[in-house]
Amino acid sequence: DDLVKKAWWLTENGPAIRRYDTTPDGEIGTGFGLGCNGIIYVLLERLSQDERNVLDLVRAVRASRQPAVWAHVVTPLEAAGQYLSIDTSGTVHQQLTSAVNMHAVKEHAAVSLVSGDSQHIQIGGTELFVETLRPAVRLLIFGAGDDAVPLLDLAKYLGWHVSVIDGRAHYARREKFPNADAVIVRNAGDASAESFDRWTVAVLMTHSYSQDLDLLGQLGANPPAYLGILGPRKRSVQLLIDAGIDAAQLAPSLHTPMGLDIGADGPEQVAIAVIAEIQAFLNGRAGGQLRDRQGSIHAREQSQDSSSFNVHSIVCA
Description:
alpha/beta; 5-stranded antiparallel sheet
């Protein structure tokens, strides 16, 4: 609410940094009723339709499923809002002053582009937030049974791109999966037509041994980042044997039985277990209890001097 009220006039003379301190000794923890016990720096900048802006990159990332990077200058304040970007085709665009080492910024941006992670860096007296823009997770659900519905709905709630694929036309019906990005009737043998990037995950849940076997044979040669198989371990082991696939060669993609061990019973609970496992896997987490985690519960970007710095970028269009 504070940003909505003040962002426009705060940026009247150009980009601005807004600091929110919600620590016990901070200036707004009590007044705003917040208890997150941290400090956030928010970069505010206006966007003009007649100049290049970060929303162009967001659209390009979404359309091409290729990552991009936007390195925002955070301090000194008079330089806030200057940037260097690498678009989805690898082209560098920049609006930096001569005081900033553009070569060093470009190197850091290239590292973020490869790793997919954002980072806070300091080059001389200039601080920058190198923000990686990644495409949405793409979930392929092979199997259009009733239990695919809650899995689809939960994935869409997270903003994922979801396709439901089945060789049975009376299963793969648009009216059954109104929230899906695509509902495709395709035989299991055509699974090789799919192209996978590092943000693509897939689950096999056709409830048909022959279909799952054909799919596993197709996907095993070029698996997505995450490949889950629904059902008991004994069934999956037999699938791998019949497909002539060594489970070790699919590591770490293969997850069978798929899902976290939460005592799931029924389609809705299984969907929670599966989505939670995929989320944990993509973020390099084990999926354990937060009370057992050592250190911060949130991933923190580290600057070159190893200090923590959380940055959010907000645009005013």
